[in-house]
Predict the 3D structure of the following.
Amino acid sequence: MFLTPRSAPAAAGAAAAARISLFRLVCFIPLCLAATLAVAAELHGTIVGVADGDTVTVLDRARTQHKVRLAGIDAPERHQAFGERARQHLSTRVSGKDVVVVWRKRDRYGRIVGTVLAPDCDRNACARSLDVGLELIGAGLAWHYKQYQHEQDPDERQRYADAEEAARRSHAGLWRDANPVAPWNFRRGTGSAQIAPNPPSM
């Protein structure tokens, strides 16, 4: 039996396959890096400011302040119906509390966008398991921000959607209004009843 040299087409095919494998490897490395960068980070600190119904300031252990936008929700604007109520509700839940912010991105304003977990009781010693954004939706003081729901994991996305549906059915908070204006429409100046006084505190 005689061994014959590999034909030119076969050799060319093997070389091409090697180049494709190398290309796939090189392209895979940035994807791995991107996946690593997308892994959630945690910010530990104390809430020292509440700007509105979905934005807070966290003071970390190094005494650095961080603006944090609550992920997955959109609360009424300050001058919108229920805007001040939403801010007050959030302030009551988190002001002065030690929290954990689980986050993966910053928005165009440089704010951290994340899930804020606060103590589930009135003492800082309690477990930080209260999802503040979810609680605001359930109270009828924020919308599930579906424009960005693709950034949520499936379980969290479903919890937020279910909370909004329950608030709608029970006419909680802003859902008492027959036709509440979503904040994103308010900011664009579209929709009816753009500005309305907050109802009296319950």
Q: What stands out?
A: Residues 1-5, 20-37, 192-202 have pLDDT under 50 and may be disordered.
